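Training component of the fellowship. As part of building independent skills, the fellow (R.M.) carried out the full modelling exercise for a liganded target. The chosen ligand was magnesium ion. The inputs are recorded below so that the supervisory panel can assess the work.
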Amino acid sequence: MSASAIRPLPLHDDAPPSPIVQLRLVEKRYGEGESAFTALHEISLSIPRGRMVALVGASGSGKSTLLNLLGAVDRPTIGTITIGGRDLSKMSDGDLALFRRRRLGFVFQSFHLLPSLTVFDNVAVPFVLDRQLTRQRRQDIDRLLARLGVADKSQRYPDELSGGQQQRVALARAVIHRPDVVLADEPTGNLDAATGRVILDLLVELQREFGVTVVMATHSDQAAARCDDRIRLADGRVVTVEGAVEVAR
Ligand SMILES: Nc1ncnc2c1ncn2[C@@H]1O[C@H](COP(=O)(O)OP(=O)(O)OP(=O)(O)O)[C@@H](O)[C@H]1O
Ligand SMILES: [Mg+2]
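Fellow's submitted model of the complex:
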C-alpha cells in the first residue's frame, strides 16, 4: 500500500456506480420443522460501490441476520449473494474465511478486539496471516492510528483503552486492507452520544477516503441520516429503500 493510495477516490460523480453487493431472493431460516423461524424473506437488493448505507428497522427486524449473511459469517437458506462479482454460495468455507479477511471489514457494537494482542497487532492481523506485513504496511498502520488519534496507544492492550479508543482501533482494523465492504453492526451502540458522534464522523471520513462501501445497522435516526442510502427492514422484509440502493427484480 503506497502513500498515494490514501488519495480520496472520486466516488460521487455523475456516473451511476456499479453494484458491489447484490442479493437475489435471499431467505434466512433459523431452526427446522415446527420451531423454524424465517428471519429474512425474499431480499433482493443492489448496493452500488462506494456508498455509506444505513440498515434500519425495529429490534428483531433482521438487521444483524442480514449483516451476518453479507459478512459470510452465515449462509442464506435460499438465494444468492454476490460481493465484488463473487457468488458467496459457490465458495467453500475456507474460501469464505480468506474472502472475509481480504475483502471485508467488520465493526461491532462491542469492539471485538483481540485481548491478547496490542493495538498495533490487532490492526496488523490480516497482514501477518498473509505474511504481508511489510515496512510500508507498518507505516500505513502507524499513520492510520495517528490519524485516528490513538498513536500513543499502539503498544497498549485493548483493556487499557476506553470504549471510544477501542472503536477507533476497530475502525483502523476494518479499513486498513481497503476491503470491498465494511459491515458495521451498531458501531456506536456501546458509546455515549458524544463519543458515538465522533466515531460516526470518523467512519464517514474513512469511508470516503478509502473508497469502501459501508453497510451499517443502526437504531439512530441521526446516524441513518448521515448515510448516503437507507434500507428499512420490518419483520425480515425490505419495506423501503432510499438513495442509490435498488430493490433488484
Ligand atoms: N440464531 C438464531 N436462532 C433463531 N432465531 C434467531 C437467531 N438469530 C436471530 N434470530 C431471530 O431472527 C430475528 C431477527 O434477528 P436479528 O438479530 O437479525 O434482528 P436485529 O434487527 O439485528 O435486532 P436488534 O436491533 O435487536 O439488534 C429475531 O426475531 C431473532 O429472534
Ligand atoms: Mg442486531
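The panel noted the following from the submitted structure. The chain is about 30% helix and 25% strand. Residues 3-17+50-75+92-242 form a domain with the Rossmann fold fold (CATH 3.40.50.300).
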